[in-house]
Design a protein that fits this description.
CATH class of the largest domain: Alpha Beta
Strand content: 15-25%
Largest sheet: 9 strands, mixed
Structural class: alpha+beta
Mean pLDDT: 90
């Protein structure tokens, strides 16, 4: 994006914020030229660190003396339950920051912004393509803030030991590296793994990795139609092939001892522990895991790259967890809440939030300002190509994906039958949660 485009997007964003404030009644037009600032008491919940967000809200309220914003960090392991309980007791926050895989579970609590006040074109101009999942039939679901993309961490020492200078850029390249990077003992036990794929329980983010492979094949998993949301996981390509069958078979090959790509099995440690222990060449993890990797093993020589892509494709994709601020339908200060949400997407607040969390934003204008840090540069590049899906119930879908992989591994069902069973289960979850 050139400087002119960056300025243009910034202007669009400024007009968007201004428009929402007018819509909310926080700015009065035609009243002797007077402008009222955002005012009220707003409670915000989220799982992002309180130590990083509270100072940002303090700065925000410092320029709005009649505004009080309190941010409360929630335990991500019980966040969903905490929200449900709060809404049931009418003690819910005015705004809550949700990861993309929790957004639709809370759909009934969310106030959607009408397109008459926030045009779809403006939204698409302001935010990355992956944020389009927040465009519902009846309005904008929320304001995208940050993106936490899946990236490829790699052990530089293990690669250089085999004369490899760079990580693979395609899955075909990765597949062919197993013979070099996977080491076995005399009894066949894996002592060094190329990558953790092919299993479920001991592969961190297994569902997200499978989702990423589907999204790379241009399968949206869930699609929005005129009739509502529909399951698209078994959709075929124009050539008649079914990406889901190819993807599951590809994934399973990494745990098949009779195939060259064999590098993982169910008896091995957790994939994160294997990588931080220096026993795995690659680890597919989130950008937000960077500091955890560094703290667990300060001596680990590693770097990060964008996720491998399918060879011969014209588009690049990774899976990204998006953090979005949404307004509560039950807020008694909805006008002020919308104003605060708008201010949170303004350049300074969002830029500082990105710096504090070391995560890229979901806005095009800020992503165009590339950081010098090599890790962050990869994160920014990955954010641009990030995609996600509105998971109807992450606990239920996690169980379904797990059963799909385990049924296939155990030969309890053929891959095709396992996919059909999973598809039927997902169809029911979609029907129960989207309709």
């Amino acid at each position: 994006m050139n400087n002119f485009q960056t300025i243009l997007v910034a202007i669009f964003l400024a007009f968007f914020v201004f428009g929402v404030l007018i819509f909310s009644g926080l700015i009065n037009i035609g009243n002797s030229g007077k402008t009222n600032g955002v005012s009220g008491k707003i409670l915000v919940w989220g799982t992002l660190p309180q130590a990083e967000l509270t100072p940002l809200f303090d700065t925000l309220t410092g320029s709005n003396p009649n505004l009080v914003v309190k941010y409360v960090e929630q335990d991500k392991n019980i966040y969903e339950k905490t929200l449900v309980d709060a809404f049931a007791k009418d003690k819910a926050p005015d705004l809550f920051i949700l990861p993309s895989d929790m957004t639709f579970e809370n759909n009934n609590f969310i106030f959607k912004i009408p397109y008459t006040n926030f045009p779809e074109k403006t939204f698409k101009t302001t935010f990355i393509d992956g944020a389009d999942i927040y465009l519902a039939k009846d309005g904008i679901i929320g304001y995208p803030l940050l993106v936490d993309p899946l990236v490829l961490y790699y052990n530089k020492d293990l690669l250089s030991n085999e004369g490899l200078l760079l990580p693979p850029t395609t899955w075909d390249e990765l597949f062919n590296l197993s013979s070099k990077l996977t080491k076995k003992k005399n009894d066949g036990t894996i002592s060094q793994s190329m990558i953790a794929l092919g299993q479920y329980d001991n592969v961190n983010h297994a569902k997200d990795i499978l989702s990423m492979l589907l999204l790379q094949s241009n399968n949206p998993i869930i699609s929005l139609t005129d009739a509502g949301y529909r399951l698209a996981i078994k959709d075929s390509t124009p050539s008649g092939t079914s990406p889901i069958n190819q993807i599951i078979n590809f994934y399973l090959e990494f745990s098949n001892p009779s195939i060259d790509a064999y590098s993982w099995n169910r008896s091995m440690p957790n994939s994160f522990d294997m990588f931080t222990g220096g026993k795995s060449a690659f680890y597919i993890g989130y950008a937000s895991e960077l500091f955890n990797i560094e703290s667990v093993n300060p001596n680990l020589s590693f770097d990060v790259a964008t996720i491998p892509q399918t060879k011969g494709t014209n588009t690049t994709r990774t899976y990204g967890q998006m953090y979005t601020v949404v307004a509560s339908k039950k807020s008694t200060s909805l006008t002020a809440a919308l104003g605060v949400a708008s201010l949170m997407t303004s350049g300074e607040f969002l830029k500082e939030l990105s710096i504090q969390t070391s995560l890229p934003t979901a806005t095009r204008s800020l992503l165009s300002d590339k950081p010098k840090d090599p890790y962050l540069l990869t994160f920014f590049d990955s954010a641009i190509i990030s995609r996600s899906w509105l998971d109807p119930s992450r606990d239920q879908t996690n169980s379904i994906f797990k059963e799909l992989i385990e049924n296939s591994l155990s030969n309890k069902l053929s891959v095709g039958d396992a996919i059909n069973k999973a598809s039927n289960q997902l169809e029911l979850v979609v029907k129960n949660n989207y309709e």
